[in-house]
Design a protein that fits this description.
The protein has about 90 residues and is mostly beta strands. About 5% of the residues lie in helices and about 55% in strands. The radius of gyration is 13 Å and the shape is globular.
Length: about 90
């Protein structure tokens, strides 16, 4: 597959969940995250990102943020687990 084709194939996701956190995995060592609001925890083993309707926990080893742009970032490192936590209605 040519470089850039993957993003073209995933463009239909834009309308499915507007404003919610989206993750795109590239192997086990990179995650692109869109639509996060803030980074609430950052260590080499754990990164927690807050979104409009909950949070995303990323666990692994040698984790770090390799690039940040408005509304998007790239997590680099050996990703072992990704978990989503929805915000309760009373929060």
């Amino acid at each position: 597959m040519k470089k850039g084709c993957v993003s073209a194939l995933l463009t239909w996701l834009d309308d499915v969940l507007p404003g919610r956190i989206r993750l795109y995995a590239v192997g086990f060592e990179r995650l692109m995250v869109e639509n996060y609001m803030c980074v609430s925890e950052l260590s080499q083993n754990r990164i927690v990102l807050q979104g409009s309707d909950g949070s995303v926990l990323i666990e692994g080893t040698d984790l770090g943020i390799s690039e940040m742009r408005k509304g998007a970032l790239i997590v680099a490192g050996a990703v072992a687990c990704v978990a989503f936590q929805r915000r309760r209605a009373d929060d």
